Amino acid sequence: MNPIRITLAALAIICCAAGCVAPQTGSEPASIDAKAAAALSSSFTSASPEWQQRLVQDEVQKQCSAARGKLTGDLASAIVQSQQATLKYPEGGLMGDWKSGEKVAQSGVGLQFSDKPGTVPGGNCYACHQISKAEIAHGTIGPSLLGYGKLRGQSEAMQKYTYGKIYNAQAYMPCSLMPRFGHKGILNEQQMKDLTALLLDPASPVNQ
Amino acid sequence: MNKNIVAAAASLLLGAGGIALAQDASVEDSIAAYREMLADDNPAELWEIKGREFWSKKRGPKNASLEACNLGLGSGMVKGAFAQLPRYFADAGRVQDLEMRLVSCMIDLQGLSRAEAEKNHFSTDNDASDIEALVAWIASESKGAVIAVPQTHPKEKEAYAIGEKLFHFRTGPYDFACSTCHSTSGTRIRLQVLPNLTEPAEAKPIFATWPAYRVSQGTVRSMENRITDCLRQQRMPLADYGADVITDLTVYMGVQAAGGQMAAPGLKR
Fold first, then answer.
1. Domain residues of chain A, as ranges?
2. B129 near B121, Cβ under 8 Å?
3. What is the pLDDT of residues B80-110, one digit of tens each?
4. Which of the following is catalytic: B105, B178, B181, B230?
5. Of A201, A160, A203, A204, nearest to A182 (Cα)?
6. Cis peptide before B43 (omega within 30 of 0)
7. Low-confidence ranges of chain B (pLDDT < 50)
8. What pLDDT, in 10s, does the model give residues A105-144?
9. Which of A61, A111, A144 sits opposite B171 (nearest CB)?
10. Left, alpha or beta for A69 (phi > 0: left; psi -120 to 50: alpha)?
11. Is B230 annotated as catalytic?
């Protein structure tokens, strides 16, 4: 067999492999994408296969990374559409208990390798948002949510929007920095209902 | 009538914004004041003394010190070397940060195994780290030096390109990347001000002050430690010590910070 042909065949395989991992919207050479993927797969050798899965991007993560978070036009609409399709609402009302919601908003633990197995993840909402006047140790990455329900009311449509936004923020804003708490299984239904109540309940400190 | 409502709403919004801004400013001022209060008296000096001694101490099967170690500017040249790391080392065939370079020197010069060389790389309550002491001293020998992480060798350029890619690589259950917190100016997580590391002006003072004495941890922490902890909070798995992703991200940040003035060890929360 012709050695040049073997080389060409091998090259074709390598190029295809590189092409397959490259995001469609990326502007860098595919080789850097392939090398970044290789760096990732060699950097966490003590991780279990389950944890290794965290290094594999889903389609939304791929697109938002390649676009540096600034996705526009058809690609942006496509994400909103695909993420809208992920929304799931529980039976029997979306408003939980705001007091429990406040605890979920305060808790920043969960899903880190340093957490004890079985730790119930929090929403860590205060890391990024101002929520109540009392908590001054709030972040500013996301918008202030002070007076959220007072401004918007508690209609069924508003409850659905609020729960949906917590469930999957990218169903409304493509490449949002906010974790997709329901879609990625970070928070459970009750926690998301409690957060919905924290934001909307007229008795919640958010609306005082 | 409509105009009045709009004007009233606008003044309400502005008023609320003003109060929030004033509150944010006072919180940040008090953190800055605390840092200033401690700055003249950085406990990292104790680590520097220990690191200097450790550099000259003979150990390992070859009973040698690290004094002949080449940190990039020539054998035994420590002054200013840290301001130009990570860089490509021909003998290692790869780009290395300070810690990986020290590990290589321990293996080559002292005859230690990799496991022995990397032992206690991040100190715990019970075990002090020789490497933390070494990085504190070596960093202090670059105080005032201009940050100039080299971009001449193809592997150095490649590390930057991969690092830039990884910086924006969103993944894991929370969709987080470095850029989630570090690509916008003027934001905070809880009370911690977040530097926008894509902006050279903000990257310079950050890169200049690692390694740092961490008040909350009571020890000097290295850049490897800092990035490993960022990845933990991103819900990534535990990174290997000296992992490629850490070197690549360090090169990215170092090049972003080019022209800054080294002031490590820093003093951090």
1. 3-84, 98-207
2. yes
3. 999 999 999 999 999 999 999 999 999 999 9
4. B230
5. A160
6. no
7. 1-22
8. 999 999 999 999 899 999 999 999 999 999 999 999 999 9
9. A61
10. left
11. yes
For residue A51, list chain B residues with Cβ-Cβ distance below 8 A. Answer: 237
Select the residue of A64, A139, A185 nearest B188 (Cβ to Cβ).
A139
Its sign, for the CA torsion B84, B88, B90, B94, is positive
Q: Do A141 and B187 touch (CB under 8 A)?
A: yes
| Contact check, Cβ <8 Å, B24/A140 | yes
Q: Give the minimum alpha-carbon distance from B193 to chain A in angstroms, rounded to a whole number.
A: 9
Average of per-residue pLDDT across A75-80: 96
Read off the tokens for A173. Answer: 């804003």
Instruction: Give the torsion sign (CA, A189, A190, A195, A199).
Output: positive
Residue B220 phi/psi, 5° resolution?
-80, 135
CATH class assigned to B44-268: mainly alpha
Say yes or no for a CB contact (<8 Å) between B235 and A111: yes
Nearest-10 crossing angle of helices A3-21, A30-42: 80
d(CA B132, CA B53): 13
The number of C-alpha atoms within 13 Å of B231 and in the hemisphere containing its C-beta is 25
**Which residues in chain B are closer than 8 Å to A57, comparing Cβ atoms?**
169-171
Pick the CATH number of A98-207 from 4.10.520.10, 1.10.1740.110, 1.10.760.10, 1.20.1270.90: 1.10.760.10
Smallest CA–CA distance, residue A128 to chain B, in Å, is 6
Tokens of B146: 């201009």
- Chain B residues within an 8 Å CB radius of A64: 170, 175
Tell me the Cα Rg of chain A.
21
